[in-house]
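Annex B. Sample input.
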Amino acid sequence: MNEELKFYIKNWLFRAQEDLAVVKSLSELNIEHFTSSICFHCQQATEKYLKAYLVYSGINFPKTHDVDYLISKCIELISEKFSDFDLRNLSEFGVDIRYPDDFY
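Annex B, continued. Sample output.
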């Protein structure tokens, strides 16, 4: 693996960790009104970790926020590591609930 690819993967991982830091900070405030932001950043972190793994594995993927699609690509690589994850509803938090009328 060349240095440019390593740097690219590290950037995906850094951004994912950044999202998790936001989740941790908002969760510690224990304010119910932050629920949509917490869910959004959980989705974003998951998406970025999956993308980092796919890049590491040499798998191309389109620009997407669809965690279901990304996990399906990971399952194709190593089903025993990813098949236990149920992320069916997580994609909704990436885009769908970012507006006032969309949160349930």
